[in-house]
């Protein structure tokens, strides 16, 4: 028995070694199929309506100056406006210089010279303006942005100049242009000739602009229609953005999101870092992302606005028609960027408890920290009613008769739609927005009273 024990051990050992080789070969030739884990990214909501920066930065209006204190105005629903905006891509500007004007020269350009004034609702960064037109030369200026681009013809030099104006900063610069007198007179001014006549209003009292020597601040003015106009009152149904769509759009991993009910009945969705607060009574939301990385390189204003546009493009999209309104510093020195909703040529103004007029972003070093927007989106057109809109003289007379304000304190006036949210519908009511110096804006129904009394004008 003992003589068979050693050979048996040898055979068993050989079998074990052979089995070990076989198992090793199997493991070597049959690697497991690894699944690579992609870095976490926001999930884009579907469908998403994306926009480019150039689509969001558009002029508020175009004013045509004919001399003899005659002016007309076109807005985005008018053919002359579309023609000018299309032509802007062909405009070339060169030889930029800081510039000042005397009161006398200001009055001459504004009231007597042929020109075209492209007006923005508020200050637009110069680098963004450079996307709409062509800057052939670099500009050396401390101006951050402009609210107007004014083309005018200088007869003595036979040149069309451009003024880049910022009323907020009190700065301007002038440049030569590629535009000829024929372009200005026979094309641009000719197309605006049939637009509604306007009354130019200088923001400061006229006595401050008497002819005198020396440079003066940038003139700020606005325009009011001489005669009554037409505008539609609309009613739309609306859709409400669902919680599921919000979670899909704003969180990295929707499976990690939990819901919290606050004592005031506000609902918060959070993944432990980012959060969405829903204000059900307002049908609005605020997204917060406190985590950010400070960037060593200072961002330009254009990069900041572009970053806000890109963020909205990837997170829920625009839903309705929005345009860039302004960028300013918040109380804590963060960048506050606002986009406003429009119907046709007119901005929406919300005063009630369900605001649906703006998307507001607060960013720091280019990183979005908060975003506030409405959960309501205009859906189907339901009905409309045509209104006769009061003229500028009628509006001023109404303000005086009702003692609503001192008209000398008015800094701007424009038409808009005031929103009124009902059960399943939104009414858009035409109003005049009257901006005042150092006091709250006035919102006045734009409807003209038929058979009203004599209008004394804007003096």
From TrEMBL:
Keywords: Membrane, Transmembrane, Transmembrane helix. It comes from the Bacteria. The keyword Translocase does not apply. Pfam families: YycH. Residues 7-452 form the Regulatory protein YycH domain. The chain crosses the membrane at residues 12-29. InterPro entries: YycH, YycH/YycI_2. This is Two-component system activity regulator YycH. The gene is yycH.
